[in-house]
């Protein structure tokens, strides 16, 4: 199997796996218990918190959550005032904003240009005094484009609003820009386990709780933490920190090699430069993506985001770039990173290209 779906999830780092085992097997105590084994588990949670927080700006607090989806729901539902967001956001943001709008909260969704980037003049016009929250993602999960978060944060702050950054696809790979008030992240996108995310909050930011209960985590997030998942997340963050330069160089090399191999029939969706290079979202006129995926079962790649892949709707991200339904439907997403091998990537591209050519001959 050649795995090229790093935006859906990343392979678990062996080090993160090992770090989790003791907390699953022997050290099972509740980290919120006051006895000795509970305190030992709590110490592991706090060490993990420090490791994750070391990749985030100073002067904030990190609350573990069950996922980035929960973190984003919390930040949006727990804040107040009109919301401004962007058409290419993840469903965890767009659907939550829509739900808030149905309950009467004002919401504005900014368009993007053909390159996937938000127009800052349109943002300035929409983010007016009285706005409560601006929600913008760092790296797009479908097309890899990087939004100008620091500039959006400046605009948000001039209007008195908070800036929530969905940094799920950038955390540990792209520096967190200055000016964020809240940052949502997820362990399984940085070679950590699934089932744990976090919300980082600048000191002084306070949110209404999303989950009511024991209020175990900073900001009042309730629920018993899993020391195993925390330890896996912390170890993954530590590795991302230690391997940042090597991982970056590897991804750049893979991106260059892949682009050099692509023929002119393939067009890259979204900006090439303002982009995380572990993503190639490609379109080819007339491509039958469902057939391509079913013909190449030993290559794991996708037609768009994993969450939307069950629906046969064209990607809302590609539609927001101004692509027609047909253009959006003939696009594929390839994602690669730390454990990807260049020969395998090039072999996959060759086979994808050959299968696409055959489709054309048979059409
Ligand atoms: N935001 C972005 C940009 C994502 O890519 C994802 C996951 O695909 C999420 C949010 C949700 O993360 P989680 O899987 O932790 O709920």
Could you characterize what this model shows?
With 363 residues, this protein is an alpha/beta fold. It has two domains: 2-9 and 244-362, Aspartate Aminotransferase, domain 1; 14-242, 3-Layer(aba) Sandwich (Aspartate Aminotransferase, domain 2). Helix content is 39%, strand content 14%. It is built from twelve helices and twelve strands. The protein has helices at residues 14-25, 36-53, 68-77, 91-102, 120-126, 149-158, 227-242, 244-261, 289-295, 316-320, 325-329, 342-362; strands spanning 2-3, 60-65, 83-86, 107-110, 133-137, 162-166, 182-186, 197-202, 267-268, 279-283, 299-300, 331-335. The protein has a seven-stranded mixed beta sheet, sandwiched between helices. Strands 9-10-12 form a three-stranded antiparallel beta sheet. α1 packs antiparallel against α7 (227-242) and α2 (36-53) runs parallel beside α7. The longest helix has 21 residues, at 342-362. The model has no long low-confidence stretch (mean pLDDT 96). It binds pyridoxal-5'-phosphate. Pyridoxal-5'-phosphate (PLP) binds next to α3.
